[in-house]
Amino acid sequence: MDDDTPPFFYVMNYASEAEGDVIDMVSGNPDWEPPEALREGLREYADAETDQFQYPPSVGLRELREEIAKRRGVDISQVIITNGAGEANHLAMAGGLEAVDGNEIILADPVYPYYDGRTSLLDAEKTLIPVDKDGHLNPETVHKRASEETAVIVVNSPNNPMGVTYDGDAIEQLLGVAEEYDALLVSDEVYDHFDYSGRFTSALSFDSPNRIVTNSFSKSMAVTGWRVGYAIFPREDRPAPYNELVDSARTRHMLTNVAISRPAQASVLRALRETDPSYYEAVREQMVERIDRFTSALDAAGAEYTEPEGSFYVMARFPGLPGTMENIEMLIDEAGVAGMPGEAFGDSRSDWMRFALVSPRVEEAAQRLAEFFE
Question: Aminotransferase class I/classII large domain: which residues (predicted)?
Fold first, then answer.
């Protein structure tokens, strides 16, 4: 494998070129229908006046920002619509490094590779903290490792790849570490609609200038290709330097993207206003069923695995088959199932493999794995 090729792309390409049928359990692309109101909004937008096809406000459509602000209990001035949660996290991490002293970003290990890559892109010092045996990042361990050099602490809840969910006590403690060292907690909550434990607590539940919350509609509305996300920054009446974060992010966002797709924003807004909670409940129920079927097959294969508290990923460790890229290739070729190597997410779970359960063929994939390991 070329060292410059991201592991996700390499595995997807390898699977697409493999002989025979391969079930994709690599990508986090939802396979279910988006809200009907979203489709209706897009169809209606096609007949809009031509002025509606021009640049929207750089920070996002005002009506969408108002809707998000109302739902999240913040002021509209704190909300920036971004190119998915990816840009939201970039703005948050870059802003933290720029605004506060220190050049260290603390990440959980295993880590979503884009956080790791972004840390390198920003030329920051990276500290990977292994999660506990249950998959959670321990706030006490973070506190011991943090220092005056710590600028940003990144937490993802519900989590990719471990599937854990952080409760209010954990988030409050992590926020306390950020406050103690004048750092910034970046809380990526993109899987907030996929909490099966009932423990998920947003960082917005705590009144602090030391946090930025990021999110998107990619997963919750099954529209990963639309790239509509958002970041919520500290209020501008907060003490410096936290009050400067939102203005700095507006400038960086405008220079990078100019603006985000107007039709996509308008359709998401309509879906937000018109989609009944039963839509999200049905998707969660479907995911719980898939998790049950998949983990039952992992039991049959004699695997150790994570039981997701949230999101839609399972990490598994098979006897005698560590999570290397070579073994991922073997599963593709011989079992017809494509997952991700644990080594792509860091060192602490490098002998595991990660599987995304966003496929209608989850049960078939599970059966293939069980038969392979018989």
Answer: 21-368
